[in-house]
Design brief:
single chain, 150 residues, alpha+beta, 2 domains, 5 helices, 5 strands, 19% strand
Length: 150
Amino acid sequence: MVARGDHVYVCRGRRYTHHGIDCGDGSVIHYAGPRGSVRRVTRTPLDVFAAGSEVRVRSYETRLRPEDTVRQAESRLGSMGYHLVRYNCEHFAAWCCTGRAASSQVRRWLLAAQGTLASLVAAQSFGPHLAVVGTLGAGIYAMSGPLRRR
């Protein structure tokens, strides 16, 4: 059940998740805008945010009160500053709930990139067969994160 101040998210295929803050009135505050355009923090109806996907709730061990979470989200309405790696929709929702911007998706992507880099170095040192195994292993681990949490 979704409640006011919840950090909500939806899966967009297997590639990524989209995050926002439930306002308790049937709307969600989140980054929105077509790909390749400037994305802004906006309020949209929950069904528009979900776009046909199941809405899930992220839980936190410690977090701000729901009123403070929604107030944080509303304070950013209309703002820009979206960046896929440095400040995306997950960073925004986590910041609203905890005061700390964080993205588990970005961490997984960075781990996969580090694994790929390590594999390239291994290929230089030990040969291409080891590099292929390392790259596949890092990719599988990075992409299986969302599957392990279900």
